[in-house]
Amino acid sequence: MAIIGSLIKGAIDVAGNFVSEANHVDNQQKVLKNLLEKAKDTAFGKYYGFQKILDAENIEKVFQEQVPYFDYHQMQKDWWYKLHEGLEDITWPGIPSYYALSSGTTGKKSKKIPVTDEMIESIRNAGIKQVTALSNFDMPADFFEKEIMMLGSSTNLKEKDGHLEGEISGISASNIPFWFEGYYKPGKEISQIDDWDERVKNIAENAKNWDIGALSGIPSWMELMLKEVINYHGVNNIHEVWPNLQAYTSGGVAFDPYKKSFEALLGKPVTVIDTYLASEGFLACQTRPDTTSMELITDNGVYFEFVPFQPEYINPDGSLVQDAPVKTLAEVEKDVDYVLLISTVSGTWRYLIGDTIAFTDVEKAEIKITGRTKFFLNVVGSQLSVNKMNKAIQELEEQFSIKLPEFTVSAVKIEEEFYHVWHLGTNQDISVSEEELAEALDKNLQDANKNYKVARSKALKGVKVNLLPMDVFYEWSGANKKKGGQVKMEKVMGEEKYQEFKDFVKQNS
């Protein structure tokens, strides 16, 4: 009998029973007030009159009026550069202990996002909330004695000017509690290997030494690691190596597009639990099994705002126009795409994280990630969000019984006429032609999106499809940013980036 597992499961079940139904709106009002109180004497707080906001009758409304929207580049240009000059108390009291490096999905140059000690605590609290929520998933007692494979970026953080730098997954893993170290795989030594391919090679070599019960990481890189382990040991699926694998905590991107290819690597079903850990914070996690949506963590140092995702509110670079309307959690509606803004204990304020979300349950504050503001294809009025693209690709998978876990698309002018050129990633030998796929994809999009259908009758001439091996997508990410960790494939490319990708494909075909 799994005695230790039974004790842990019992403790989690007890903790889960004591968690009361959250009042998310009240939580958010308290979080905003606390954020303003703590930051009122910073340079940012004084400039935007945080004390005046705190004295107002409606703090949320005056906060919206006083503080503009920021994206990373504006925050860096106006405020965070002062931190790199050694100044303190800029957008949050003191100086940050860490910087999360994030290339996002748009360029080679890394962003450097402050991560304070309060944010480390916030991420840890969110992890505890997620573990407590396991009481809702009816996991067997022996599950809680198994090891957890946390696949992220290297934990070998770089020291620079009195702080440490690395990707947020590496920062988080380097701060795991001492009592968790025995469960954590691949362990400190392998996790510190900077080179992704070398790290995965070491994981594969050691895989049979571990009794893995759960996986955690971004789907695309998790799949690549699992394939390496499967190939190294000459088995048919990952359960032949890790027979007790029962759960996968996905994160960083929507899991649905990867579901079919991920399940092909399994010998039996596993429980998939979605999470939302961004470089700027741990924002949401799935807390119950009867949904694939995630609950916003509303009481943990992050204040959320929501701008309706409409073309007229988005600048060409993906930032927001300053007069775009905004809603609080009390004002949002179900099934509407919103641009997500956050203010946090790391000193981000009304900060455009770059993701779009939709509420699946407003009362429970449950959401799904629907796309990225920069991945909105509207060159010829087609108004394609990533969510609509994902659904169209999933329909192709069902229609032709194929797996297409990655794609990228661009609006390309060919002989004075616009086409949507799609590159679809697969490792299968597909009998259907690229022309047939293009025709079916075009039809799926027209059936589901009236704006796209109108564009196809006017400026958008047609659709072209190119099938590519999955390795091309992985190597592109490696060449442009870095393999593994929080790195995600750009779903929409502008003209210049598309030409770079096209040249890369030609060189590596």
From TrEMBL:
Domain (GH3 middle): give its ranges.
Answer: 297-363
Which Gene Ontology molecular function entries are recorded, alphabetically?
acid-amino acid ligase activity
Presence of keyword Coiled coil: yes
Source domain of life: Bacteria
Question: Which GO terms of the cellular component aspect does the record hold?
Answer: cytoplasm
- Pfam families, alphabetized: GH3, GH3_C, GH3_M
Record key words, sorted: Coiled coil
Q: Which InterPro entries match?
A: GH3, GH3_C, GH3_M
Q: What are the residue boundaries of the GH3 C-terminal domain, all occurrences included?
A: 389-495
Q: Which residues form a coiled coil?
A: 431-458
Read off the PANTHER family from this record.
Answer: GH3 DOMAIN-CONTAINING PROTEIN
Name of this protein: GH3 auxin-responsive promoter
Give the originating organism.
Mesonia phycicola
